[in-house]
Amino acid sequence: MIDEKATELGRLIGQSNEYQAMRRAEQSLRDDPEAQGRLETISRLTREFDAMIAEGQSPAEEQAKEYENTLREFELSPIGQAYLVARTNVDKLMQKVNQSIGEGIERGATSGIITL
Q1: Which of 16, 61, 86, 113 could form a disulfide with 21 if both were Cys (CB 3.0 to 4.6 A apart)?
Q2: Domain extents for the chain?
Q3: Comparing C-alpha atoms, which of 29, 47, 37 is closest to residue 70?
């Protein structure tokens, strides 16, 4: 029963306007070589920074500037903005869903009535 309800919830989330907008924004990102290049640079620098920090080092100023500039360019591009807005909206939707699930769990845990 729980699995069926979870599957139904997943289906409804997948059909939501928020999720569909995010899927379209993701496709636009995949179709734009410039956006892809920026994302690859951001990912590469993030991995390099993580490795440096793990070794107790700090990123070079030049690398930090490259990261900041690339991130800013991505965030200011129309495709980047559309993706970030869509992602934020999906995150908000999922927060509401998780809050509702939590409230349901609390009501279920304190209820003396068992329903299946």
Answers
A1: 86
A2: 34-100
A3: 37
46-74 pLDDT, tens digit each: 999 999 999 999 989 999 999 999 999 99
- The answer, yes or no, to whether residue 114 has pLDDT greater than 80, is no
- Give every CB contact of residue 93 below 8 A, 6+ residues apart in sequence: 13, 16, 18, 19
- Global pTM value: 0.78
In angstroms, the Cα distances linking 115 to 13, 30, 90, 107 are 24, 45, 31, 12
